[in-house]
Amino acid sequence: ETEDIKEKLSKMIELMDGFKASKVLFTASKLRVFDVLRSSKTGELQAEDVAQGIKASLKGTERLLEACVSLGLLQRTGKEYANTAMSRHFLLSDGPLSLQGYIQHCNELVWPLFTHLETAVREGTNQHEKAFGKTSDNLFQDAYYSRHEVKLRFMKAMHSIAKVSGRDVATAFDLSKYKTACDLGGCTGAMAYEFAKAHPGLSVTMFDLPEVIEMSGHFRPHDADDRVSFVAGDFFKDELPKADVYILARILHDWSDEKVHILLSKIAKACNPGCCVLVSEIFLDEDRKGPSRGLLQALSMTEGRQRSASEYSLLLKSHGFTSAQIKHTHNLLDAILCVTE
Ligand code: SAM
Fold this sequence. Notes:
Elements: H1 2-30, H2 33-39, E1 44-45, H3 47-53, H4 58-70, E2 74-77, E3 80-83, H5 85-90, H6 100-114, H7 117-123, H8 128-132, H9 139-144, H10 148-170, E4 180-184, H11 190-198, E5 203-208, H12 210-213, E6 228-232, E7 245-249, H13 257-270, E8 276-281, H14 292-298, H15 309-317, E9 321-327, E10 334-340
Parallel strand pairs: 4-5, 4-7, 5-6, 7-8
Antiparallel strand pairs: 1-3, 2-3, 8-10, 9-10
The structure holds S-adenosylmethionine.
The site of S-adenosylmethionine has 18 residues, from helix 10.
């Protein structure tokens, strides 16, 4: 009984302190603590040197470094601090699996939204206007893309998640019989390049709003594959490029069922028999009891919603996309593939 209470208490404490841990991660990332440690000759530094490197007070830096050690973000031997394997993988700004972009998005955009969670719950709305003083009917064009640095930050966030999850999504299904794919709302092209890499016979057209396409050079990989091309347009209004496979990665969760139907019916019209749609999202458990990653994300959504694999499958089926294959990747995004008859 007492053991049980203690276990519950420690879970409670973890939940109560969760926001502090997140903010420590965001702040250490923003101040480039992990990059500064990496750039030292030995990979180790004392608190004074880190403080100098991040241009911060010694007292504050010491507290931050100690908190990072307790969270497994840093390790300390004597007075020397160093990155852990986890931070080397995910927290260096130029690492291939860097989550820096997404972490800064959480810090600058999601955090302010969550400070208004109570109102968001009372009103059933996203708190973008309260947090940033701006109305946004169209989340992307009004809120994200109207200022250059906000657009770049959003794109870096999408880029980092796509880099971490892209390979698992791209290899989730056998696509060897298809020649062309179109990544609708493909953002920086990171996912499109992963598909091209995973499928040597596939050419991929990356389709997104003009504001996004104009930035594609910024995210072009060094070894960019020329089977990836870029087309600007609005997937609700403009004609969609012809393709055998339509990829919708983290697109449908942003929209109401009504808008999803508009988009899927446009894809169905553009499709020839045998074409398929690959949807990649966090799939909620069928009983909507998890994963909490998906359910927590839903709290700051505008008109979208999180769905289970069978909900996606039903939406797709109503536009003639059947024989769903579902893949739980155990990465950040799962995937479902449906084919037209
Ligand atoms: N698919 C990418 C990925 O998984 O990394 C990005 C997902 S992001 C959440 C949504 C993308 O949809 C953004 O790149 C956004 O610009 C694009 N988008 C939003 N509305 C659009 C529209 N009407 N037409 C084309 N693209 C749109």
